[in-house]
Amino acid sequence: MPNFHVMTKPNGAVCNLDCTYCYYLEKERLYPGAKSFRMTDEVLTSFIRQYIRAQSAPVVTFAWHGGEPTLLGIPFFERALEIQARYAKGKTIENAFQTNGVLLDDKWGEFLAKNKFLIGISIDGPEELHDVYRTNKGGRPTHSQVMRGLRVLQKHGVEFNTLSVVNRKNSYQPLEVYHFLKEIGSEFIQFIPIVEQLASEPDEDGIRMPKPYANPSSKVADWSVEPLQYGIFLQTIFDEWVRHDADKIYVQMFDVALQSWLNFVPSLCVFAPTCGNAMAMEHNGDLYSCDHFVYPEDKLGNIMELPLAKLAASPQQFEFGNAKRDTLPAQCRNCDYRFACNGGCPKHRFLETKDGEPGLNYLCEGYMHFFRHAAPYMEIMANEFRLGRSPANVMPWARKKDTPA
Fold first, then answer.
1. 131 given a catalytic annotation
2. Residue whose C-alpha is closest to residue 126's, from 183, 168, 187, 167
């Protein structure tokens, strides 16, 4: 069994925000009898022990997500560190933590810095863009609170990256988003396109954002990014980045694209030929095939009943991962950019091709637009890498292209 990743949700979908586009908030409805969504010490201990034991690599990374993990308080994570130390057995343990930043204060800053947590902080751009969809339970804006939390991280020297959801609103102001992220000190930037379908009525579990193909009457939610606009968003930022920032700013999408041009297996599951090595675990130990496929039929089992490693290596999970490759429509298999895209995330593959074959990615037009535009730059960066030089050497060439002959 190769090493695998588990996105751990120690308090399930419980969150202090009520973001319009959040696909995970409604997952609480899958546990109607739950009296608490707080992970018990028994489950926490069993998970940490099993997860460390299942990894063959010398470095084991725990990823704490939600919902909002800071709602659990610092003592929960102090306990997690104690258990990790007990079962490390010579392995290096690292912790990554995704947060909306609202509850971060000096105590959190001291704890996260002392224990070298890598923090992902969610922010969608400047105030007027961030606050469109990212509000609290009372419908109030959150940008100022997130910025206060970010300043806590900076004050205490906590390593962080930013995660920005690309949606219907901010996708039309790419440079405003990018310049803002640079101004606040983000040197590691992730852009996540939001694409959700909404059913006209909830299903029997109360879920309104259905699994692809599960509800023929579902429609793309109006906060979802539009396909071509997503490609334009990426292209616009790329043109700025490749001329001025390739030597100092890490943009995940661009780095993963370069991996493809180098014939490496993309490190981001969205663009890998198959998936299945990145699972999600709920507060009670239920393990699901993927964070985007937390549905009853995609539940692999519970780690308190069956070993985590056995669930991760189960036929069900292998079938799930290989389906990404095996169900790729002919239009994608014959595409010039299959090597860079591989059909994209299965969650977004709910359109039909021009020949009426199912499985086309909703974002296909945008991906094609971006990859076609970035191709000559990627070829130069890949060649520089192969020659043992920095891919950032593309910058002078890119700037020279803008100079009239």
1. no
2. 183
